[in-house]
Design goal:
Elements lengths: L1 H18 L6 H12 L2 H32 L14 H4 L1 H4 L12
């Protein structure tokens, strides 16, 4: 799961750097677009890698969920959730845990 997360995060950073070319001027952005267009094999490889990474990431999350259930098949008697946030309890379904972090909501 960590490896696929790094791949997906790497794509986000690479995409951000590519899109920031717009602030370098129109010629720089056109050069970047021409570079991407001149390597269609690399683009298709990247698309395939991202698609596989997304499916493997979801599969790994499901496997971890199953391991968690097998580790403790009997549920706890009281589910107080004293030391957890809403984001950490719903991470399996949301995929992101920043909804209630102090960065966005204090």
């Amino acid at each position: 799961m960590a490896v696929t997360g790094i791949v997906l995060f790497g794509f986000v950073i690479g995409h951000l750097v590519g899109n920031l070319q717009i602030y370098e001027g129109p010629q720089r952005l056109n050069d970047y677009a021409a570079l991407l267009k001149s390597h269609p094999g690399l683009l298709w490889f990247t698309r395939a890698l991202l698609l596989v990474s997304v499916f493997l990431h979801i599969w790994a999350a499901f496997q971890l969920w199953l391991l968690q259930r097998e580790a403790r098949p009997v549920e706890y008697r009281k589910n107080a959730n004293l030391n957890s946030s809403y984001a950490s309890r719903t991470m399996y379904w949301m995929g992101l845990s920043f909804w209630r972090s102090s960065f966005f909501i204090s």
